[in-house]
Amino acid sequence: MGLSDEERSALVSYRINKSKAVLKEAVDVARLKHWNLAVNRLYYAIFHICSAILLSKGYSARTHSGVIQIMMKEFVKTDILSKKDGSLISTLFNMRNTGDYDDLFDWDESQVAPLVGPTETLLLKIESLICEKR
Q1: Is the Cα torsion angle 102, 106, 63, 81 positive or negative in sign?
Q2: What is the torsion angle, in degrees rounded to the nearest 10, for the CA atoms of residue 76, residue 21, residue 65 and residue 31?
């Protein structure tokens, strides 16, 4: 059974708000120099906003990789988002996996801090794409 338009809209709004809250967490933990956690939160900020736009457009993915594949196919390859945007999404996914699951590995400030601004910019860009079609 699918979602009603009202339920879909409410879930999209929830995911947008969650994305923004998680981005704030990323900024907060970056100030504390917890770089692995900052990467994790940057990735999840993008994951939630990507999930929101996919839901708003009627797409469904069961995995994180599925979300990224659909984003690349439907938004990057069609030039709705730039290749640079797609690269950021993929980079954050890979960095999150490395930081969360690899042994004897830690991200540092030089690798993570430069991603905060672009992540915020991409989040806002995707949010504007969602809002212009609502």
Answers
A1: negative
A2: 90
User: Which residue type does 71 have?
Assistant: M
Tokens of 119: 């992540």
Burial track 81-90 (b if 16+ CB lie within 10 A, e otherwise): beeebbebbe
CATH architecture, domain 5-132: Up-down Bundle (1.20)
pLDDT digits (tens, 9 = 90+) for 61-105: 999 999 999 999 999 999 999 999 999 999 999 999 999 999 998
pLDDT tens-digit series, residues 10-34: 999 999 999 999 999 999 999 999 9
Among the listed residues 77, 71, 79, 73, the one whose alpha carbon sits nearest the alpha carbon of residue 54? 71
Q: Would you kindly state where each structural domain of the chain is located, as residue ranges? A: 5-132
- The contacts of residue 42 (CB under 8 Å, 6+ apart) are 23, 26, 92, 96, 112, 115, 116, 119
Residue type, 10: A
Query: Model pTM?
Result: 0.95
